[in-house]
Amino acid sequence: MQATKPTHVRYLILLMLFLVTTINYADRATIAIAGSSLQKDLGIDAVTLGYIFSAFGWAYVAGQIPGGWLLDRFGSKKVYALSIFTWSLFTVLQGYVGEFGISTAVVALFMLRFMVGLAEAPSFPGNARIVAAWFPTAERGTASAIFNSAQYFATVLFAPLMGWIVYRFGWQHVFIVMGVIGILFSLVWLKVIHSPRQHPMINEAEFNHIAANGAMVDMDQDKGKGKKTDGPKWDYIRQLLTNRMMLGVYLGQYCINGITYFFLTWFPVYLVQDRGMTILKAGFIASLPAICGFIGGVLGGVISDYLLRKGIR
């Protein structure tokens, strides 16, 4: 009797992570694509725009540990779905700040960007949890690289599109279109995402394969059903902050984020204001660094898993 072939539901889950991360970074980039036109319409100077840009980062940092705790307490599916819906709603609302006076619009835009950052905080911890639950140890590098590469793919795909929307319809519509996409995706997320043990599409062969090879298949079991869990493990945080290898990871990630956020925020504004490009052309040019980042990100994960399979640590 022929054994049942395993399904490949984990690749569908990975596709969902790739898509949600693409939407995530596209929503972060809306303010950059709209920035030059927004400055002109609202009379915002470069310093004020810088504060608006940074509002996201301040909230995103502040929300990391609470966001991780919420994921541990209630599970990845529900917390992530609420996160997607909430940041998308705040993105839509940014399209209406022009209805207020200048000073009110600036404050409203700052607060809405702050709330987007707070709502997006659970996203990457959520990605990591879901990959850990669905993927064997030897496949996690590639899986993580694929969802991480979505941050560059978002710029490749959406920067030209958002540039065209600003050029054709005005900056307000960028926020509305991208926010609505995210709200609709939050509904798809609830339909498709489940833990491995509970997913209706997975068969026993695939479940046994991932469980036997290091996937943490029961990570989200019984979450949010009144089961008491401990709070944040502060000793774990201390260990992470004093581990030499992790400090190297933090430094590398800090450098990557600095470069990424420049291209995600100020680069389109620079192209329009200092290089004299139209927002339509700037949208296409802004996607070029992201293409390289996308290719490099995917290759990094593939090579990492290859080296692990070869026993190189």
Molecular structure report:
This protein is 77% helix and 0% strand. With 313 residues, it is mainly alpha-helical. The protein has a single domain, classed as Growth Hormone, Chain: A. 42% of the residues are buried.
Gist of the model:
The chain has 313 residues and is mainly alpha-helical. It has twelve helices and no strands. 42% of the residues are buried.
What's the CATH H-level superfamily name? MFS general substrate transporter like domains
Distance between the termini: 40 Å
* Radius of gyration from the alpha-carbon trace, in angstroms: 21 Å
| Integer count of domains | 1
Q: What would the average pLDDT be, to the nearest integer?
A: 85
Q: Count the DSSP helices.
A: 12
Second-tier CATH architecture: Up-down Bundle
The best one-word shape is: globular
The main sheet comes to: none
What's the helix and strand layout?
Elements (H helix, E strand, L loop, with lengths): L8 H34 L3 H17 L1 H11 L1 H19 L7 H19 L2 H12 L5 H30 L2 H21 L11 H9 L21 H9 L1 H30 L5 H31 L4
Helix pairs in contact: 1-2, 1-4, 1-6, 1-7, 1-8, 1-11, 2-5, 3-4, 3-6, 4-5, 4-6, 4-8, 6-7, 7-12, 11-12
